[in-house]
């Protein structure tokens, strides 16, 4: 599978595994696969943002106010990227923001009064800012490691950072896992509601994350060098802060555990698992080098072990070369991984799909070699089918 245009390509295989079933279908709807998220169900907020943008497009708002429309579209795409990257609730919250942007497009504006007989003054085009890059989430795996992502159902009292005794079992999810695998490290993320100033919320969320760190050190003997705390304040709200129930949900803790383990050693974690496998392609080629077969075999072995899983293989490139060419090459590389998993690992084709995105979903700027290398990647999104 060769093409003539030259383009450097050193992608990495990032495997974001969404593990564990859901106990109910509240806030979920049948997945139309418009956002290339695997699984039969998806959070309704995600597809509501698709519907809002489609309604805006049909109303002609993509041409009436193209800059604002592109911003809403970018917000929707960012929400999907976050949703894929082990941040389900944050992705859903961002999708709600994208829906609000789409619904608010092209508001009527009062015309400025012109003196009688005065000629209309041309409006200078606004300078276009440099397009934003989607922040790389903490769940983005590094080479040859996995990330085990856990949302801890710890609820904090207003203004407090102490962990109530009834939530000791939640801390145990992390403590037991890290005790079993002593090479692991973890980032504990703290979040707050929107009551109070941004700075006070950030400090409070930091103290809450540190409380979990101390509980892990004191209760499970986890070395301080293996733990870090990060407070995000009211960022990434997963519920409406207008209600007491919503604010309580926003006062929460996430744990992102980084581990260099053989995936075959792990029992299914309660939520999600993100693995990274290094796979390099030759320039202009979608052929998988045999030296990387073993890396992809790990994905196949995992999917065989858990036969309810499905996967979408995504191809991504940097922006060097013509966009149509990049799109085709990324699609071909994704299809190569799908074909390998089908033929070599025996994974049913109905459980796999390939999608090439070219350079449309970058995670770094393309103006440095390091940024371009980060953008040249293959993502494999593994999801468990929801059981009724």
UniProtKB/TrEMBL annotation:
GO terms for cellular component: cell outer membrane. Its main location: membrane. It is found in: Cell outer membrane. Residues 143-261, 268-386 form the OmpA-like domain. The keyword Disulfide bond does not apply. It holds the Pfam family OmpA. This is OmpA family protein. It comes from Geomesophilobacter sediminis. The lineage of its organism: Bacteria, Pseudomonadati, Thermodesulfobacteriota, Desulfuromonadia, Geobacterales.
